[in-house]
Amino acid sequence: MSSAKSHKRKKKNLWPVWVFFITFVISFSLSFFAETVLPGVGLPVAILLLFLIILLGIIADILGVAVMSGEMIAYNSMASNRIKGAKESIILIKKADLISNICNDVIGDICSIISGAMGAAIVAVTYTGGESSTTLILNVLVSAMTAAMTVSGKAAGKTLGLKYSKQIVFFAGRILAVFMPQKRKGKRKKK
Known about the structure:
Structural class: mainly alpha
Order of helices and strands: HHHHHHHH
Strand content: under 5%
Oligomer: single chain
Shape: elongated
Helix content: over 70%
């Protein structure tokens, strides 16, 4: 029994290391995408990509809050009735601390940082060769607007995540059900 507890403790102690590598890979991928794609697209597409990154961070934050405030009781009866997505919702609730950490801290924070960098890149690409004071003012305005949209979106998202946690977790569970293979419990048709 003590061996199982020590193994579980070691696994939890490695979580910060995993977070480091997950964050590095996601940040590297999004930054690389932003740095290589943004200069080649037009202003409307670049702004749309910026909004999508901000929206991804807000959605991840909503899911993280919903999972932390969700209760497993709601999904147990659905799982016993074999409703698709209920078992996956239970998994999300059981691993709420992990899911919340990934959604709120890893994905949410990365999207915030990348959106700020994307806003600066949009100004730099769009207004190269312009007056330095104009570029400075635009850079500050785009950064402030990006931060304001991110923070206000996450504030509204937290309210939604708390108010509709059952529906949000179940929706995420249904999406997971599509991607997670169902385990067969030895049920075979008798001949």
